[in-house]
Design goal:
Number of strands: 2
Radius of gyration: 31 Å
Strand content: under 5%
Order of helices and strands: HHHHHHHHHHEEHHHHHHH
Distance between the termini: 133 Å
Strand order of the largest sheet: 1-2
Shape: globular
């Protein structure tokens, strides 16, 4: 039996399209909007993929994970050196969840570096040894990579927080719009305004040898007014200008960075007092609050429920020893014990 040919032919296709468009137009209000969470993820993904530095950064994150995840023995090295955190593989679909992959490096980069050093020294595989040494030397000891870790963690953390809110069952469109606007405002707002202020006032000290006399004079005058408080300033702008003119000519060729200039000034005694103060202020400006955060973490470990009755003085002393453990380890305990004994010796002489 032959099949009955459909009455519809090529001429029916335009009619179907017209009917479909009519229905879409009538029910335009009822159409579901594009999911904001998914759009947020796609925007982040596209922006990151358009940057070669972002691709390189996340490629390094994945390389670090693969270096430890390749075998149970390597993973054991990581767990022995990094407690409470573990490396996670990069998500290829949910970009905002990559914050969990960046988080261990944000808070435990030195420990992960130490684990890579141990891996490089203990493994017998040539590829693994070369990869571990390369990650330590060219990535985890690279300022640009560590700076990217901080930037990307803050960015992904903000996006991930908003993304989780958008997934809640009782989320309405008004709240979703406010959250997305707040996120955009947070990105658009300059979160490094204070760093720009520091750059404006201390920029000439970073490249002293390349600075012209005109820029040096302007920089010294601006720095004097920036450091002025209550009519008094920490430096004299005119004297600082004269000092830097002499210092710029006399600096050795190998001295370029601000820390190297400061170390050079140490050996010059009091020849450049204003320069000494200016470079000390520059190099003591805190870039992050990581040290403060680690201090609070140490306090939680020191004052636990077994030491709940500890006095404030003893707590301060133990916290200082724990925070400055590198300095404390270099001290001569014998001389410290003798000094403590001499200060607490009884004054009364018994016969």
């Amino acid at each position: 039996m032959k099949k009955k040919r459909s009455a519809e032919g090529p001429e029916a296709e335009p009619q179907k399209t017209e009917v479909k468009n009519s229905r879409v137009e009538r029910n335009r209000v009822n159409q579901l909007p594009t999911l904001p969470r998914r759009s947020l993820n796609l925007v982040l993904c596209d922006k990151a993929n358009s940057s070669s530095k972002a691709k390189t950064f996340f490629g390094v994150i994945q390389r670090i994970y693969v270096s430890f995840a390749s075998s149970p023995q390597r993973w054991a090295i990581l767990k022995d050196n990094v407690e409470g955190f573990t490396l996670k593989q990069l998500s290829q679909t949910r970009w905002e969840s990559r914050v969990e992959s960046v988080k261990p490096l944000r808070y435990h980069a030195p420990k992960i570096r130490d684990a890579l050093v141990i891996l490089a020294n203990s493994t017998t595989e040539a590829m693994a040894k070369s990869e571990a040494k390369s990650l330590v030397t060219h990535e985890l000891e690279n300022f640009e990579f560590l700076f990217c870790v901080c930037i990307w963690y803050n960015l992904l953390f903000a996006v991930n927080s908003v993304s989780k809110l958008l997934q809640s069952e009782d989320m309405d469109i008004e709240v979703a719009i406010k959250q997305l606007k707040g996120l955009v405002t947070d990105f658009e707002r300059n979160r490094f305004e204070q760093f720009k202020v520091y750059e404006t006032n201390f920029d000439f000290l970073f490249n002293l040898k390349k600075s012209s006399d005109e820029s040096l004079k302007t920089g010294c005058e601006n720095l004097e007014s920036f450091l002025k408080h209550g009519g008094a300033s920490d430096i004299d702008g005119r004297e600082l200008f004269m000092e830097l003119k002499v210092l710029k000519v006399g600096l050795p060729n190998e001295v370029n960075k601000p820390i190297e200039v400061l170390n050079y000034l140490k050996h010059m005694e009091d020849c450049f007092p204003n320069s000494w103060i200016a470079y000390r202020i520059l190099l003591t400006i805190p870039v992050t609050v990581a040290s403060g955060e680690r201090s609070f973490s140490k306090l939680k470990q020191i004052k636990n429920y077994l030491r709940s009755t500890m006095s404030q003085e003893r707590l301060n002393g133990l916290a200082m020893l724990s925070i400055e453990n590198d300095f404390a380890a270099k001290q001569d305990y014998s001389s410290l014990i003798d000094l403590f004994a001499s200060k607490n010796a009884r004054r009364a002489m018994f016969k």
